[in-house]
């Protein structure tokens, strides 16, 4: 006869197992894998590893760069202004994080730059009389004056010379053409001050500041801005785009404050480039050579800073306490000599005096 099996409720089994766990395995809980605790620790280690092995520069080692562009002296003449500004900004990013980009110039000089056709915008300038298209505003104005203005003058002369019914017919015939000319002349012949120049620089990320026609006012404002930036310690490296000798003292002041300086200009061996830490030409900036050379320049600056920190400087107060010993001299005697050096020379120890007598 088979023994009867007593069925135990599942709830009772759970209570037994839970009590057994609490009584006998409580000491194991401290050694159980804690995913949340390990996860956070692992995050810290991964973060340290990424900081030490990633290509990004740590925040403490980042160099703040400021660009100061003297538009009165060094606007590029061969390339569009937006491309030149973008290339300049890319070169400056090779030296660190660009925090400030400023361009100073006179409005008259900026308008002269536009007449050279160096600024090529996406906008097409079309004549409102014949719908002919031009790449620059200067070509459009010359076309309008040479063709449409002379034609308009001929119509006026014909109307003035006619009499009676013929005059009335000429006015009716030329009325639409004359109205079209007046509307186009109001738009084309009106001088456009600073046309698209500020927009091109602002599109590249620069803050443009124009000054009046007073001489050297833009240079003075630019120098004051550079000194103010150094006073506030907003930049560790200054990129100056100019060949003007007026900025020589500012570069010397930056060197006294241990601020790195980079000069961009067309003069190959100018005074500013000799006073600065390094210099590039516009050709090197536009072709990308300056960006490649920035790596070696940064390495050279870093080596120079390390050598300055390791440089030995003689200090009589510190170095006078050390003695030179021969090879046979014991080092312990040297330590005693350094300790004796702190005493007054006429005070002798009792042991030393007794040994000598």
From TrEMBL:
The C2H2-type domain, residue ranges: 125-153
Record Pfam families: NYN
Origin species: Trapa incisa
GO molecular function annotation: RNA nuclease activity; zinc ion binding
InterPro entries: NYN, Znf_C2H2_type
CDD domains: PIN_LabA-like
Keyword Zinc: yes
Domain of life: Eukaryota
Annotated protein name in UniProt: C2H2-type domain-containing protein
Key words, A-Z: Metal-binding, Zinc, Zinc-finger
Coiled-coil blocks: none
């Amino acid at each position: 006869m088979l023994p009867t099996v007593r069925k135990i409720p599942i709830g009772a089994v759970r209570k037994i197992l839970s009590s057994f766990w609490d009584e006998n395995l409580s000491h194991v809980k401290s050694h159980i894998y804690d995913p949340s605790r390990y996860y956070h620790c692992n995050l810290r280690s991964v973060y340290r590893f990424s900081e030490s092995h990633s290509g990004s520069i740590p925040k403490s080692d980042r160099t703040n760069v400021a660009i100061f562009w003297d538009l009165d002296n060094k606007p590029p003449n061969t390339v569009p202004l937006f491309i030149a500004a973008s290339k300049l900004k890319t070169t400056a990013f090779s030296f660190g994080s660009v925090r400030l980009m400023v361009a100073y110039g006179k409005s008259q000089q900026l308008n002269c730059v536009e007449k050279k056709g160096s600024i090529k915008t996406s906008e097409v300038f079309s004549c409102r009389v014949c719908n002919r298209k031009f790449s620059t505003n200067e070509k459009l104005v010359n076309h309008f004056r040479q063709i449409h203005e002379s034609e308009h003058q001929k119509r006026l002369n014909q109307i003035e010379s006619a009499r009676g019914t013929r005059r009335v017919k000429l006015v009716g015939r030329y009325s639409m053409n004359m109205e079209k000319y007046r509307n186009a002349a109001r738009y084309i012949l009106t001088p456009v001050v600073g046309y698209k120049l500020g927009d091109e620089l602002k599109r590249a990320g620069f803050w443009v500041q124009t000054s009046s026609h007073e001489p050297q006012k833009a240079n003075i404002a630019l120098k004051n801005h550079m000194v103010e930036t150094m006073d506030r310690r907003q930049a560790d490296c200054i990129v100056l785009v100019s060949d003007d000798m007026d900025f020589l003292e500012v570069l010397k002041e930056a060197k006294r404050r241990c601020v790195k300086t980079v000069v961009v200009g067309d003069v190959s061996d100018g005074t500013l480039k000799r006073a600065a830490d390094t210099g590039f030409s516009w050709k090197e900036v536009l072709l990308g050579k300056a960006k490649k050379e920035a790596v070696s320049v940064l390495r050279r600056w870093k080596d120079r800073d390390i050598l300055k920190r390791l440089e030995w400087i003689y200090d009589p107060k510190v170095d006078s306490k050390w003695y030179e010993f021969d090879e046979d001299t014991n080092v312990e005697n040297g330590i005693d000599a350094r300790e004796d050096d702190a005493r007054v020379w006429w005070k002798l120890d009792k042991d030393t005096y007794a040994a000598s007598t």
